[in-house]
Amino acid sequence: MVAAAAVAGVALAGVVLARWEAGVVWSVALAAAAYAAALALAGGPTDQAAPLVAAGLVIAAEVGQWAVELARPAAVDRGIVPRRAASILLLAAAGAAAGAALLLVSHAAAGGIVLTAAGLVAAAAAMMLVTRLARGT
Amino acid sequence: MTSVPAAKLRGYALLLAALVWGAIALHRPELVALAAPFGLLLAVGLAATVPPSVAIEPGEDELRAIEGDEIALSATLTSAEPLGRITVETQAPPGLHVPVPRRVLRLEAGEPAEVAFDVECRRWGGYLAGGLRLRAPGPLGLIAFEQAVPPGVRVRVYPRPEEVRALPRPAATHVGAGNYVTRIRGEGLEFADLRPHVPGDRLRQVNWRVSARRNRLHVNEYHPERNADVVLFLDSFTDTADGSGGTIDLTVRAAAAVSRAYLRTRDRVGIVGFGGVLRWVLPSSGTTQTYRILDSLIDTQVVASYAWRDVAVIPGRTLPPNALVLALSPLSDARMRTALVDLRARGVDLAVIDISPLPFVSKPPGDLGDLAWRVWRLQREQLGSQYRAMGVPVVEWGSDRSVDEVLAQIREVRRYARTVRT
């Protein structure tokens, strides 16, 4: 897992240096895939640190995008950098909180076919919502 | 403004889907926790995105500068709603350089904000600059709104002024007051001769010392100072250029320096651009004429044409009688060479600055290339000799010397030529 995370880190540094904006998400996806693989292989109880990993991934993705933007010379007005940094941290914290809440819910609920089906429907609904919002703008 | 999805929108959506489906497939709720921040980002970012409306008011619509100067291109942006981040980018045409072409700023609702870009003027010419590209990302940068403003600022960059001290002196002068001491006698500062007093002579012209010695009133005579007409005859049929410069570039720089210098000495200066397109500025004097000529010069460019042209197409008023015609040409085009011969045949006081194309051409490889190169050089030398035989001073100018040196050489050649004639 550590090796996979290191590979993902190197990939992220590479795409930032190459100013490849779309590549940032792919390197974060690589790190997420490594984490998922590690969980699947290790088995065992729920990893309570998952919300922190999620916060780390979202910070890596957003900071990576920011670094790609900064690679081109630009005069940035005062106040923009701290505001953006604060919004990324806030987003990560809110995301981690949401993730922790979801983990709590998963502990409370009993598994079964009905819950799995509900999860599938919820996932599909979430994707439809995202698509609809994206089209709306 | 048109909306453009950011690269991360698709990436985050795919990541979200993959993590959720992975969580269901692997029965690992941690993956849902991993997807939660991305889902939250997508939901909030897309829901909060509102298309902005930004009004752009350009700054000056015309700017003038001299090569090497730095100018500022500005625009005022006003947004109807607050924008946390908007990127304004400008692109400069070749010849202008913007060291920092992007600016990221915040816009408060209804408050105008000025955006200015420093622009270095690297080469003379007329440019259309000031094009802007605005990019305002939504609250979490998932959707960007873009707007392009076409370039609308006319920037005129004049060649850097070069110091010219020794100008070729025209053979004939004009009637207006100027800096050339003429051969005729009249009112002036330079002493010419003495003559006996005649009724009508002013008292202050009386040379009392001579009058006392000769026992008769004598008056001083002077050479008056006059101005002259100078016409710059520019060859715009061909341009031999490489990355560092070219013959048209040298022609324009030399013409700018020479016209400035002659206009400073109160001469009347005109321009004839002889090429695929015939352009001219009638001879005149003064500061306005300086800018008229410079404006005309920076529009000089080669317009390819195979049509035959001779001096008959040049309007008569552009070549006043007794004007010194200073031709600037690489002598590459037969039409220009013939026109110079025609001008000389018509008795025009002509001098030629041969703008050498040699520094901008690389010698062809091989023995044949070497031979061709030497033949070409010999032809150019022979051409210069032919003009000199006609009484036209020809001085070759590469980029290794200053205009001042070339003009000093022409001045010397013309001075000796006059001595020989007398």
- Shape descriptor of chain B reads elongated
Structural class of chain A: mainly alpha
Strands of chain B, total number: 24
What is the multimeric organization of the chains shown? heterodimer
- Which percent range describes the beta-strand content of chain A? under 5%
How big is the Rg of chain A?
A: 18 Å
Q: How many distinct beta strands of chain A?
A: 1
Query: Which band does the percent of strand residues of chain B land in?
Result: 25-35%
Number of helices of chain A: 5
Rounded average pLDDT of chain A:
82
Q: What's the N-to-C terminus distance of chain B?
A: 77 Å
Instruction: Classify the helix fraction of chain B into a percent range.
Output: 25-40%
Helix and strand sequence of chain A: HHHEHH
Which blocks of ≥5 consecutive residues of chain B have pLDDT under 50? none
Counted up, domains of chain B total: 4
CATH fold naming of the largest domain in chain B: Rossmann fold
Describe this structure in words.
The complex is a heterodimer of chains A (137) and B (422). Chain A is mainly α. Chain A is 82% helix and 1% strand. In chain A, helix 2 (21-42) runs antiparallel to helix 3 (50-70). The radius of gyration of chain A is 18 Å and the shape is globular. With 422 residues, chain B is of the alpha+beta class. Chain B has 4 domains: 2-47, no CATH class; 54-158, Immunoglobulins (Immunoglobulin-like), CATH 2.60.40; 185-223, no CATH class; 229-421, 3-Layer(aba) Sandwich (Rossmann fold). Chain B is built from 8 helices and 24 strands. In chain B, the strands form 7 sheets. Chain B has a 6-stranded mixed sheet with strand order 21-20-17-22-23-24, sandwiched between helices. In chain B, strands 1-11-10-5-7 form a 5-stranded antiparallel sheet. Chain B has a 4-stranded antiparallel sheet with strand order 2-4-8-6, with no helix packed on it. Chain B is elongated. The mean pLDDT of chain B is 86. Classes of the chains: A mainly alpha (137), B alpha+beta (422). At the A-B interface, helix 2, helix 3, strand 1, helix 4 and helix 5 of A face helix 1, helix 2, strand 5 and strand 7 of B. Strand 1 of chain A pairs parallel with strand 7 of chain B.
